[in-house]
Design goal:
The protein is mainly α. The protein folds into two domains: 1-107, no CATH class; 111-227, Serine Threonine Protein Phosphatase 5, Tetratricopeptide repeat (Alpha Horseshoe). 62% of the residues lie in helices and 0% in strands. Helix 1 crosses helix 3 (58-78) and helix 8 (159-169) crosses helix 9 (177-189). Mean pLDDT is 81; it is low at 13-39 and 85-89.
Length: 227
C-alpha cells in the first residue's frame, strides 16, 4: 500500500480557497458564515482508503469528488459575496474535482485521475488535455483508459483529436472491445468512413461476446461494414 494519504475534504477546500484552516472566510467580516467542515467523516475516510489502495477506483473517486464539491458549494452558498454569482458554483465544483484528481495523479499507476484532468481542461487547453489523456493511456494496458479518453474528446466535440489518440494507442488484439467501439466511432465522426469500416472489421476479428455485441451495434451505422 502507498504511504501517501489523501487530503481530507476540509483540507482540499482550504487548497481551493473555499475556507481557511480555522473555518474563517477569506473576506473580512464574514467568518460566521463559513461552515465547519469535518475531517473525520466515516464515509469520506472509507473513500480515501479505497483510493489509497487503488487511485483508479472510479466509483470511489466520483463519490469523494461529490463530497468535495458539496463542501465547496455549501461554503459558497453561505458567503453573501459569492452566493449570487451565476459562475461561482460550476467553477468551484470543477476546482474541487481538479484538486482531487491532481493529488491522485501523482501516483505512477494512476490513470483515471489523468482522465478527469483531461476532461476538465479539454475546452480551455486542448493540448494540455491531450497530454493528460495520452499519459493515462500510457499507464493502462487493457484499453479502459483509451476508451475513456476517446469518449472525453468525442463529448467535447474533438473527434479528430480522438481519432489521433486512437491511432497512437489502440491495440486491436489486446484492448477491451469498449476501446474498439470508441475507436470506430471516432473514425466515423472524423468522416474517415473507409477506415471506420476497416477498424470495425478488426473488432469483429476478436470474435468474443463483447466484440460481437460492439459489431452488432455499429454495423448498421458504419458505411461499408461487413454485413
Amino acid at each position: 500500500m502507498s504511504s501517501t494519504r489523501l487530503l481530507p475534504v476540509a483540507a482540499l477546500a482550504c487548497l481551493l480557497g473555499v475556507v481557511d484552516p480555522g473555518g474563517d472566510s477569506r473576506h473580512d467580516g464574514h467568518s460566521s458564515h463559513r461552515p465547519h467542515l469535518a475531517t473525520d467523516d466515516p464515509a469520506e475516510a472509507e473513500l480515501r482508503a479505497r483510493l489509497d489502495e487503488d487511485p483508479n477506483d472510479i466509483g470511489a473517486f466520483n463519490s469523494l469528488a461529490e463530497l468535495v464539491r458539496a463542501s465547496g458549494e455549501q461554503a459558497r452558498a453561505a458567503d453573501p459575496l459569492t452566493a449570487e454569482s451565476p459562475h461561482a458554483e460550476p467553477q468551484s465544483a470543477d476546482l474541487a474535482v481538479w484538486a482531487l484528481a491532481e493529488e491522485l495523479a501523482g501516483r505512477p499507476n494512476a490513470w483515471y485521475p489523468l482522465i478527469e484532468l483531461g476532461r476538465l481542461s479539454v475546452h480551455d487547453d486542448l493540448d494540455g488535455a491531450l497530454r493528460r489523456l495520452g499519459g493515462a493511456c500510457a499507464r493502462e494496458d487493457s484499453g479502459l483508459a483509451l476508451a475513456e479518453a476517446i469518449w472525453v474528446l468525442r463529448e467535447a466535440g474533438q473527434p479528430a483529436a480522438a481519432d489521433s489518440l486512437a491511432t497512437a494507442h489502440w491495440d486491436s488484439t489486446s484492448h477491451v472491445p469498449a476501446a474498439g467501439r470508441q475507436v470506430v466511432l471516432a473514425a466515423l465522426e472524423s468522416e474517415r468512413l473507409e477506415d471506420a469500416a476497416r477498424l470495425l472489421d478488426l473488432v469483429a476479428a476478436r470474435d468474443d461476446d463483447d466484440s460481437v455485441a460492439v459489431v452488432a451495434e455499429l454495423r448498421s451505422v458504419v458505411p461499408g461494414a461487413s454485413r
